[in-house]
Amino acid sequence: MTSTPSDDQREAERVAERAELLPEEQQAGSEDPQDQAAAILEESDERVDDPEGTRRESSQTPGG
To answer: What is the pLDDT of residues 17-42, one digit of tens each?
Structure first.
């Protein structure tokens, strides 16, 4: 699947919004909030796209 400019723009907006650190993230600090946000969103998207698969792979999800 190829992305369109509007898809790229929406993704950039998602990352920018998530890069605004939560209070606990601000306290811990982040060297690169943009990269951190992109990684968090990528993992989240994987869980949404394949909840059963990510549940099996997770060490934090009960019943996996």
So the answer is: 999 988 998 899 888 999 999 999 99
User: Angle of helix 33-49 relative to helix 5-18, nearest 10 degrees?
Assistant: 110
The model carries a pTM of 0.65
Four-residue CA torsion sign, 30, 9, 42, 17:
positive
Q: What is the dihedral of CA 26, 35, 1, 7, to 10 degrees?
A: 60
Residue type, 59: S
